[in-house]
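Protocol step 4 of 6: structure prediction from sequence.
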Amino acid sequence: MKPPLIYVLDDDDSVRIALGSFLRSLGFKVETFASGRQLLASDQLTLVSCVISDVQMPGMSGFEVLGLLQQMTPPVPVVLLTAFFEESLKQKALAAGASAFLSKPFSSAEMLKVLETLL
């Protein structure tokens, strides 16, 4: 059985690289992207099991990416991340279809728990 493909989207190089490395160490196949436009242009988008995306990014926000991925059939599960946690933002994300909403910095255990429920 092939490992699940996870896309990591974050404009912060250090977060993107660290999260990608962590997920690979767990045995996932991971592709990383610095912008929503790059991610949406991927030729493997229909094969992705989950997208983990930052909320605040230049150009296209995590909410915009979430909205577009929710239109796919079937919708792609999206985990949104933010360094600026507000309960109202979390509620907005979940209402928009996000599978989970985590605050940076998050623990490895928190991310693993979310992925275990999704994959």
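Step 5 (inspection) to follow. The first strand starts at residue 5 and ends at 9.
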